[in-house]
User: Fold these one by one.
Assistant:
Number 1:
Amino acid sequence: MLGNTFGRLFQVTCSGESYGWSMTAEGAGRWGGALLTIVNGVPPGIKLDVAKIQAELDKRRPGQSKLDSPRKETDRVEVCSGLQEGLTTGAPVGMIIRNVDTQDIHVQQYRDVKDVVRPGHAELNFFYKYGEHGDWCGAGRASGRETVGRVAGGAVAKQVLGREKIEILAHVIESRGIKGRSVIEGTMTFEELKENYRGNDLNCCDLKAAQSMIDDLLKVRADGDTAGGAIEVVARGVPAGLGEPVFDKLKAAIAHGICSVGAVTGIEFGAGAKAAATVGSKWNDQPFLQDGRVRFRTNNCGGFLGGMSNGEDLIFKVFIKPTPTISKPQRTVEMTAMREQELAAITRRDISICPRIYPVAEAMTAIAVLDALYMARAWYGLAHLDPKWETLARPRHEGDYTK
Ligand SMILES: Cc1cc2nc3c(=O)[nH]c(=O)nc-3n(C[C@H](O)[C@H](O)[C@H](O)COP(=O)(O)O)c2cc1C
């Protein structure tokens, strides 16, 4: 399998599957492997707060409410390299998170239908790419469990970004057509998002809408079905000029990171889709001067100009499809026998992926932004520009960072 590393200078490499198989030289092996993350490019001398890494992992941990998969994972992280007496050394930071809830009963449920592809899931392509050797248990690396490694890597990135006063938060803004207020629509402030962050099982910061969404999801669950939705990601404190003008736009790097997460069906930067129905005079974000700095009256572009950050908040929506695994019978194909049949899944699943994907989106954004920051600092270090340009590029919300 190729492509398990994200980032160019700040790099996160992940391995690990939904269930995994552990084996030692002495033993015959057993179900229950681990998710591994290696982070390259962590500066030395940082007092890495492992409790904060754990807190990020706890946000996406399953089994916390009726909306999540009932799988009981502890998701305990152990940092096992790159630290000395609590401080980073500059060496790669290695982390391990073991899979603990891999009971035989659940393995058997997957074994029973191992050649029958779940409509909407990745199994069909796993057959095409890995043949009969592909991982059939819990979707292997196509499982949402794979995202544990991303969140661990993103948590390290967030700590480095914290020193630069950059903060990234995401919340649910839509579930099965029920819409909540959002920062991009101008119906919620960033401060309200922060205040209500994780205030309910769905992490929808519009508390009234959250209740309707949750009530609706419980009905969907009772019906054996699943639901789609959308989240909004806001990155505050990002300096202007991050990203490169052509292939390596920050917008493209973020889209790469976000679209690499399972179940994502689209990303919309700023007012994105509204662009199709408007005119330039309404769409353009007009710059003005405030205390000698360039600000914008609106943020239709979501904080991106020429694909690079413009010093405003980076804001984008991410659309999430309904969880593929459903109990309702659906037509599909059994791959080894090459015959059609019906599948009504009994394996564990999330009713909605929204309450579990937002920390993953935060993590991927953090890695992409930090990687771009490394590139920008390297550029300024060698370009010998008049320093006024780097000073002017400072973020609009500098000093707003409160966590
Ligand atoms: C955090 C997270 C949790 C997920 N939970 C489930 C789940 O419980 N059941 C399921 O069928 N798919 C789940 N998925 C979605 C699948 O991983 C995804 O749909 C699958 O890999 C196919 O990829 P695609 O949707 O991008 O085509 C989850 C994804 C994420 C990111």
Number 2:
Amino acid sequence: MTPPKPETSQEIGWTPIAEEAERAARVLHPEGNTLPRPRRRRVLTVANQKGGVGKTTSAVNLAAALAVHGLRTLVIDLDPQGNASTALNVEHRSGTPSVYEVLLGEVSLAEAAAVSEQSPNLLCVPATIDLAGSEIELVSMSSRETRLKEALSAEAFDELQVDYVFIDCPPSLGLLTVNAMVAAQEVLIPIQCEYYALEGLGQLLSNIELVQQHLNPTLAVSTILLTMYDGRTKLADQVTQEVRNHFGEVVLKTVIPRSVKVSEAPGYGQTVLAYDPGSRGAMSYMDAAKEVAERGAEQGVRGELS
Ligand SMILES: Nc1ncnc2c1ncn2[C@@H]1O[C@H](COP(=O)(O)OP(=O)(O)OP(=O)(O)O)[C@@H](O)[C@H]1O
Ligand SMILES: [Mg+2]
């Protein structure tokens, strides 16, 4: 008897391109794999005063991944840089109804929200350059820490029928970030897998504690996402391990790899899910969104950080 001939990848119809196409199809048409609706609407503030750690990238890609699964998702761009608005290709020229007018109470959330062309389930309240002066303008305003919360009323969210809200913060712990922390129930902290990543985290956590004590007792750090992981470096593993040892369960199992596709996507006004759905970056944000949603379906979504 002759031994069976080993199958080549061609014979079994498997090639790297076929595999990527199959992954892309799973990302773009995940019908068979729907994510649970949260038990209650979830408002997550994406914060880290360190710049360039992946706040905006994580906010828009997690939002896009949830939207692809049929969950109505709103991204509130609370950074005068307007990066989330750019990534979602939403108009944000000066004068466009934006989060600035929402903070001033001049327009409602629904009036400022635009539907992203990436998905009818994905909405964005843009940030224009007008927001740049608001850190200073807010100082002299009444209820300066709670203005966003007032605008994000249950009625405002009901009008938009959203399941998830991500607030993309600027890289500072100023009044805009405080407004975001007062308006949310959860904080999502992206941490870059780099040497200095943990620096400043203590300050962020003590600010969160201050907000808990004085302004929003139900706020909790529910999610930490490790970003820009480079598997070729020992350092990335060390940082990952350190963060996991320190923060435990709150850290998502999924780690976002450093990927050129992820960084290229905003240049095309797209999330990585739209730009290259078969890429590792897109798959990892899908996996991270799945974890976020599955935690949301459980009762104890609150973070356990002390
Ligand atoms: N997984 C990744 N792989 C490669 N590049 C990435 C990845 N995630 C983010 N980037 C890039 O790193 C840069 C910083 O990311 P991002 O803008 O999301 O950070 P941020 O924390 O929002 O920054 P800021 O503090 O300025 O708001 C961007 O150029 C982005 O495209
Ligand atoms: Mg940003």
